[in-house]
Design brief:
This protein is an alpha+beta fold. It has two helices and eight strands. Keywords: Hydrolase, Membrane, Transmembrane, Transmembrane helix.
């Protein structure tokens, strides 16, 4: 497992466009936060689906890299999301991820997404990542 500081530095170096904060990092789990602004909203005053999908995917990536190290070429092979309720337009989005399986070539996880301060999830996602062979 790598440290939260190492992973944050990796994202600053490799993904400077990313706009989320790693709140916590544990073995096979993470929580990340994204500040929501007007740019993230869709008509009707709710957070857009692509923002929620971005957060689900990012949380999976953070949890995987936090557990196996900086394997930058680990890639999403599948992402399924269920939108459960309208996210709050005036609250950050919180993504809680737990890895279900962490093998040598595949990782599978689930992510619950919340409007900050609400205990009912706004979305639930599952995803699979392909992990490249060592040395690639």
């Amino acid at each position: 497992m790598i440290s939260k500081d190492e992973l944050e530095q990796f994202f600053r170096d490799e993904f400077p466009q990313s706009s989320f904060e790693i709140v916590s990092l544990e073995d096979r789990a993470t929580t990340i936060r994204k500040p929501i602004s007007h740019d993230h909203l869709r008509p009707g005053g709710t957070v857009s689906g692509p923002v929620l999908m971005e957060m689900a995917d990012a949380a999976l990536y953070v949890a995987i890299l936090g557990s196996i190290g900086l394997v930058a070429l680990a890639v999403t092979t599948n992402l399924n999301i269920n939108f459960l309720r309208k996210p709050r337009a005036d609250r950050d989005i919180i993504a809680d991820c737990r890895l279900i399986k962490l093998g040598k070539t595949l990782a599978i996880g689930e992510v619950f997404l919340y409007s900050d301060g609400d205990d009912q999830p706004v979305a639930h996602a599952t995803g699979t990542y392909a992990i490249p062979p060592a040395g690639r």
